[in-house]
Amino acid sequence: MRRFVWTNLNAEERERALARPKEIADTALMARVQDILADVKTRGDKAISDYTRRFDTDAPVQLSVPQEALEAAWNALDAADQAVIERARRNVKTFHAAQMPADIEVETEPGVICRRETRAIDTAGLYIPGGTAPLVSTLIMLATPAKVAGVRRRVVVTPPGKDGKIDPVILACAFRCNVTDVFAVGGAQAIAALAYGTDTIPRCDKIFGPGNAYVAAAKSLVAQEPGGPAIDMPAGPSEAMVICDETADPAFIASDLLSQAEHDRVAQVICVSCCPHVSTAVEVELGKQLQGLSRKDIATDALSHARMIVTDDRADIVDIVNRYAPEHLIVQMDSPELLVPAIRNAGSIFLGPWTPESVGDYASGTNHTLPTNGSARAYSGITIESFLKFVSVQRLTKAGLKSLGPVVQRLADMEGLDAHRNAVTLRLESMQ
Fold it and tell me: Which of 239, 262, 327, 357 is catalytic?
C-alpha cells in the first residue's frame, strides 16, 4: 500500500492521494461493443447464438431455460445451500419491502388536488455475471426487490459455461427468487438483447446488474439511445474505504480490505487511520492474510494501487470520506454511530467491529449493487424505488380553476405562450 500523511499534503497532493486509478479510454472496445449492439439489433437471436459460440462455448446452447429446469435445479440443491439462499433472500425481501413508498395526496389550495401514485416498471432485465464463480448474491439482490416492487416480468440473462449450460446454483436461485425468464446469454450481446428485444428475449424497460468492461460499455451506450432502456447506475471497479482509530482490530480491517481486493485487479481499497500504530499493524496483517487466499494474485494486483492515509485529526477523516465518496465505507472507530450524520457521500456504511463488509454483500438485507467511482456523491445503491416510477395526478374543481386560473394566465403571458393562456381562458369564460 502507498502511504500518505494527510497533514503533510498540500491541496493538489491530497487530490492525487484520493484519485482513483485512471481507466484507459479504450476506443477499440467501444467500437466493438457498438458493432455487437448493431448486429444484435439487426439479426436478433442469430447474432446472439454466433457471439455465444465465439465468446463462451462451442457446445450447443439452449437460449431459453424452461421453468422446469429451474425447479429441478432447486430440488437438487443441497438442503444447507437452500437454507442460506432462503435466509439471505428473506432478509433482502424484508428490508426492501419496508422501503415501499405510500401514495401521496395533497390539496395545495382549495379545489386543487395533487397526487403522486406509485407504479412498478413493467419489465426489468437482470444481468448476472458468469466467470469463475456463480454470483448467487447478485441474483438475490436484483430479483428479490424487483418482485417486491411488483415488476411484472423479471428477465435474467447470464452467460453459459464452457459446457453450454448455466451453473445449476444460479438456476436454483432463480427459481427461489421467482424470476419469470432465464436466458443463457452474456456480455454486450445480452445487454443488446435486453435493450432491443429479439424473437426470444423480451425488450426491457430498465437494465440492472454489474459486468465486465463490455457489459458496462453496452449499458452506457443503449441508455443513451433515443427511447433506449434506463440503467441502474454508472459502473466501475469495486472499492472499499476503512476508517479506523486506536480501538480497531488490525486483523478485521485487513480482512475487509482484502474482501474488496479479491474482486478485481483494478479494485481499489483505502484505509484511513488516525493511529499510526494501527495503520502499520494493518499492513502487516494484509501480508499475512493474503497468503491464504485462493485469489491471491488478483488481490495482490489490487493492493499495488491501494492507499494508507494517516492523519492525527479526526475531523479530517470525515472530510476524506466525503471527498472520496466510497462504494463501501467500513467504520472501525469508537462510537461509530456518532459519525454517520456527517457522512454525506457513501454507497453503504458498515458500523463497528462486528459488521464485516461481507454481510452486506450477501445476507444482511441491504443491497450490494452500489455506486462506484465517486458516483455516490449523486447516486444511491439499488433500493425498492429503483424498480418503481411515480406518476403525478392533478384534479381541479370548478372553484379551484376559478381561483388559480388567473395565476396561470399571467404566467403564460410572461412566457408568451398564448395557447396555454387560452386553455384556461376558455374554461373561465364558460363559467360565466
Answer: 327
- Sorted by sequence, the CB contacts under 8 Å of residue 224 that are 6+ apart come out as none
Residue 348 assigned ligand-binding role: no
Q: Does residue 132 surpass a pLDDT of 80?
A: no
Cell numbers that stand for 29 in this block? 472496445
Residue 189, marked binder: yes
68 noted as active-site residue:
no
Is 199 part of any known ligand binding site? no
Residue among 96, 239, 328, 357 flagged as catalytic: 328
Which residue do the cell numbers 440443491 mark? 77
Q: Which residue has the higher pLDDT, 234 or 338?
A: 338
- Tens of pLDDT, residue by residue over 198-217, are 999 999 999 999 998 899 99
Q: Specify which residues 182 forms β-bridges with.
A: 156
Q: What is the DSSP letter of 64?
A: B
Please tell me the distance from the alpha carbon of residue 67 to that of residue 70, in angstroms, as a whole number: 5
Q: Is 328 annotated as a binding residue?
A: yes
Residue environment code for 45-59, b if the CB has 16+ CB neighbours within 10 A, otherwise e: bebbbebbeeebbee
Amino acid present at 158: T
Q: How far is residue 42 from each of residues 37, 45, 61, 193, 255, measured CA to CA in Å?
A: 9, 9, 21, 11, 48
Count Cα atoms within 13 angstroms, Cβ side, for 185: 30
Confidence (pTM): 0.94
Q: Is the pLDDT of residue 24 over 70?
A: no
**Binning pLDDT at 50, 70 and 90, where does residue 236 land?**
confident
Give the pairing type, strands 307-310 and 328-332. unpaired
Confirm whether 107 is a catalytic residue: no
Q: Which residues pair with 34 in a beta bridge?
A: none
Answer yes or no: is 429 a known binding residue: no
> For 320-371, what is each residue's pLDDT tens digit?
999 999 999 999 999 999 999 999 999 999 999 999 999 999 999 999 999 9
pLDDT at 133 exceeding the cut of 80: no
Q: Please say whether the beta carbons of 106 and 137 come within 8 A.
A: no
Which single residue is written with the C-alpha cell 462455448?
57
